[in-house]
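In the present case, backbone shapes were mapped to integers, as reproduced here:
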Amino acid sequence: METTISRLSATEKALDIIYQLENKYGELMFYQAGGCCEGTQPQCFEKGGFFPRMNDAMIGTINGHEFWIDRDLFEYWKYSHFTLDVTDGFGPGGFSLETPLGKTFKVHYRLFTKEEYEHLEPVKRSE
């Protein structure tokens, strides 16, 4: 049986914040836009608190919570693994649920190897 490679992971620090947010808000979702007001940092919302645009990409889940990215940003980063992390401070926009905790989610990227890229999990697209 062939193993599929995940496009997404999270650090322990990010998971700790996600657990706090789950306890307060319930089901969550993440969305990473391509820039402008919110920058390119991932935003965390209550599930259903943001509606992905047509053809945006859901690249995986973190603790069962969908992680969506802008369709154009996905085309740019589709050869990269995303690792969700968190840092102290306030990110652009301040709309994300971790903001009142004085934290900001961020993503570290690394390129997939050729072998990994050939065995990636499928991407779900919004309609």
